[in-house]
Design goal:
Largest interface: A-B, 50 and 40 residues
CATH class of the largest domain in chain B: Mainly Beta
Number of domains of chain B: 2
Helix content of chain A: 55-70%
Number of strands of chain B: 7
Structural class of chain B: alpha+beta
Strand content of chain A: 5-15%
CATH superfamily of the largest domain in chain B: Nucleic acid-binding proteins
Largest sheet of chain B: 5 strands, mixed, barrel
Oligomer: heterodimer
Number of helices of chain B: 3
Distance between the termini of chain A: 47 Å
Number of strands of chain A: 11
Strand order of the largest sheet of chain B: 2-4-5-7-6
CATH architecture of the largest domain in chain B: Beta Barrel
CATH topology of the largest domain in chain B: OB fold (Dihydrolipoamide Acetyltransferase, E2P)
Radius of gyration of chain A: 26 Å
Number of helices of chain A: 18
Chain lengths: 625, 139
């Protein structure tokens, strides 16, 4: 029943698209006032998608296995929380969520943009409707979440256990708010370009949407990363896996856009940058969806390999790119000329420098992700591009990037002198000495490390000092830059100080290394709602006599029959102690991995600080208005 | 007569071009160095020479070939035409077992011995690395 309502809501939603387009086109031509029918129908469309989404959630909650999606991804013994989160833990449901966010954002846009011109609002709506219709058709035609199956199965196939996790339950909605939120940036930029509407006020208005999208995308990536850290058992937080890269690429584009739009707001230059970045952010999001959903990249996000789906997204993607390029080349008028140009040492230059660095990072990630796919298509050779590639190409360029990040915000618009030179140099010397000191102690006399740590410390101290200088006004920017320096520092120290032991142990055995003694005391079994847990008890004795007991788990799920390992992590402010245990069938040995990972919590925390800076900027905007 | 502005712009464009060319060169070069190729046991058998580069070997873990010690794990990867001995010490993914697909990353000692540095994790029992699938389909 819920499925039926859900399905018809989708059809109604699609029909409303036509109604909205009809009203909009009529309204665009004649009267001067914005037609309220349009807002009402947009709300109605949003409402129908919500109904449809609730219908799917209800089918999951009541385990209605006549629904194919529920049958494929749910099970009666699954805890209620994961029944609900299972709604978007599959291809069909997550696309419905995608649609929900699309309609939510256009509705919010219409009610929040009342002070903008009528034509601009209508045109934005029209562009957004093109995207919405594309996804409606995609959903109904190739991935209907409400397919009926007969005879009705007694039991479902269950949700992949590694998705049964709190962080991963909220990761998709948060990520989508950022990922799909960029659609509104795309639509409004296209609308503004075709109407030649780009102005300082427009930039101010668009900045809010960029910020919202950026905050959620940052948090979404953070959640995914945290999940990968404790669930996949590798003990890392970023693997340069293609699936991670496709979320990083829109983030890089969006971050660059955020900086450009500041320039546009204050100085009305870099308009082409803004237009191109708005287009590329959403295009990269779509590309990510295509790569992940078409089955080209194999990952936890690939739910079903259906070539038809991939083809649909690809064609749709090309249409959107074609449309936006057409608008860019035929309608975009570069109005930079009527503004005085800027000098070498100015805020504009520093933001341009930031742009070029970001574009470089973006192209490195893009090539690393896409090149293996192309090579396989062209020469059927199978390759993979791993962390060394990215480390080599990105890390050296982080050094000037960090330095520019410290000095850039100090510059003024148009023409500037560096003020407080004494402080800038003093801080540089302090950071340099501090890094040499740290690297020397560690005995890893490595040139790159010293310079890298120096530049990270430099940004750290400069931004830290700026918190206490009152004449400095841009608090949100300072917070985010401070967060970034903290992130880089934590990652560096995390890499430098990490310790790892991998060994095979039988129950009762003891492993002795230079630094720790690991004693495998016993294992016990525990039955849970939908899995059997084997819990190991391991005592770790470090050199200075500290004893820590860790209890890593192996979980054997009933449906689907999958084994996962749950890491046991002891977290404190300085280090994480991380242990996973695996077993191999028919062997007495357990595969034990013990890691000491310093500053893990600071990595998460600094990303929170970065996004908090964005939030503050958004709220300040509201407050000023 | 070119003004100062035009000259500046010219240098700016030149600078961008040089940077672009340099970065593309850099990217392509390190791509060449850091790429890991995938090979099946059969492909290894017909290699003209053993390279020192890191590669990936994929196939099935042969039945009754797995033996585990305190330090290392030994097993045989087969693509049902040829096989290769693998020695590995490190973390083993949960679904690693005899008769299932596996992808190992590491270095060739010779054509019959492979020193693995990493065994790639799989996410569920139906999932098979695309390389293994392709290797099995070829058979």
């Amino acid at each position: 029943m819920a499925s039926l309502i859900g399905f018809y809501s989708l059809i109604f939603g699609l029909c409303l698209s036509f109604i909205i387009i009809f009203y909009s086109v009529r309204n665009f031509k004649d009267s001067m006032v914005f037609d309220n029918k349009i807002i009402f129908s947009t709300f109605l469309q949003f409402f129908f998608v919500i109904v449809s989404f609730l219908g799917l959630i209800l089918s999951f909650v009541y385990s209605d296995f006549s629904n194919e999606t529920v049958f494929n991804n749910s099970h009666t013994t699954k805890p209620l929380f994961y029944k609900i989160s299972g709604t978007w833990g599959n291809h069909e449901g997550s696309l419905l969520l995608w649609l929900l966010v699309l309609t939510l954002f256009i509705f919010l846009f219409l009610i929040k943009s009342k002070d903008q011109s009528k034509k601009y609002r209508i045109l934005t709506l029209l562009f957004q409707q093109v995207i919405i219709m594309g996804f409606f058709i995609f959903l109904i035609k190739t991935s209907n979440p409400f397919n009926y199956i007969f005879p009705i199965p007694k039991e479902g196939l269950g949700l992949n256990p590694i998705l049964q996790d709190p962080a991963l339950a909220i990761h998709p909605p948060i990520l989508y708010l950022g990922y799909v939120g960029s659609s509104i940036i795309f639509s409004s930029t296209l609308a503004a370009t075709s109407l030649n509407y780009i102005s300082k006020e427009w930039a101010k208005h668009l900045k809010q949407w960029v910020l919202i999208s950026w905050i959620f995308l940052t948090l979404g990536i953070l959640l995914g990363s945290v999940w990968a850290y404790y669930e996949l058992g590798w003990g890392g937080f970023w693997f340069w896996d293609p699936v991670e890269n496709v979320s990083l690429m829109p983030w890089l584009a969006l971050t660059t856009l955020l900086h450009c739009i500041l320039v546009l707001e204050k100085r009305l230059t870099l308009t082409s940058w803004v237009v191109i970045l708005s287009i590329s952010t959403f295009t990269l999001s779509m590309c990510g969806t295509f790569l992940v959903r078409s089955g080209i990249l194999n990952s936890i996000h690939t739910f079903a390999n259906d070539p038809e789906r991939g083809l649909f997204i690809l064609i749709f993607l090309f249409c959107l790119i074609f449309l936006s390029l057409f608008i860019f080349f035929f309608f975009h008028k570069n109005n930079d000329k009527n503004v005085d140009s800027f000098f070498w040492l100015s805020k504009e230059t520093s933001i341009l420098v930031n742009n070029w660095f970001m574009m470089y990072f973006l192209s490195v990630v893009l090539i690393g992700t896409v090149y293996p796919i192309f090579l396989e298509v062209i020469s059927s050779e199978k390759i993979s591009v791993g962390p060394p590639f990215y480390n080599k190409l990105i890390i050296p360029f982080l050094i000037p990037f960090l330095l520019a990040m410290a000095i850039g915000p100090k510059l003024k618009w148009i023409k500037s002198d560096l003020q407080d030179k004494k402080y800038l140099i003093l801080f540089f010397i302090i950071s340099f000495l501090l890094s040499i000191f740290i690297i020397k102690i560690l005995n890893i006399n490595f040139l790159l490390n010293t310079i890298l740590v120096t530049s990270a410390f430099y940004l750290f101290f400069i931004t830290l000092r700026d918190f206490f200088t009152k004449k400095f006004k841009n608090l949100s920017q300072n917070i985010s830059h401070f967060g970034f320096s903290l992130l880089i520092l934590s990652i560096l120290f995390n890499n430098i100080f990490s310790n790892e032991i991998i060994t095979n142990l039988k129950v009762g055995e003891t492993f002795q290394s230079e630094k720790f003694k690991i004693n495998f005391e016993n294992i016990e079994k525990r039955n849970d709602q939908n899995f059997l847990a084997i819990i190991g008890k391991l005592k770790i004795e470090s050199l200075n006599g500290n004893i820590e007991t860790l209890r890593p788990e192996i979980r054997i799920y009933n449906q689907p029959n999958i084994t996962t390992s749950e890491a046991d992590i002891k977290t404190n402010l300085l280090t994480d102690k991380f242990m996973t245990m695996n077993f191999i069938q028919n062997q007495d040995y357990f595969n034990i991995r013990y890691q000491v990972k310093p500053f893990m919590i600071w990595i998460w925390f600094s990303v929170l600080i970065i996004s908090f800076g964005g939030l503050l900027s958004l709220l300040q905007k509201r407050y000023e208005n | 007569m070119y003004g100062r502005k035009v000259k500046l712009r010219f240098f700016f464009v030149l600078l961008i071009l040089i940077t672009l060319i340099l970065s593309v060169y850099l990217i392509l070069k390190s791509l060449e160095e850091n790429v890991v190729y995938f090979q099946s046991p059969t492909e290894i058998k017909i290699l003209p020479e053993i390279e020192k580069k890191k590669i990936r070997v994929g196939g099935m873990v042969k039945n009754n070939s797995l033996s585990m010690g305190a330090k290392e794990i030994k097993f045989i990867i087969t693509d049902f035409k040829n096989e290769i001995n693998v020695i590995y010490s490190g973390l083993v993914p949960n679904l690693f077992t005899e008769g299932k697909g596996v992808v190992a990353e590491g270095y060739l000692k010779d054509k019959n011995f492979f020193l693995a540095t990493k065994i790639l994790a799989k996410h569920d029992e139906n999932y098979m690395p695309p390389e293994v699938k392709a290797a099995l389909e070829e058979k």
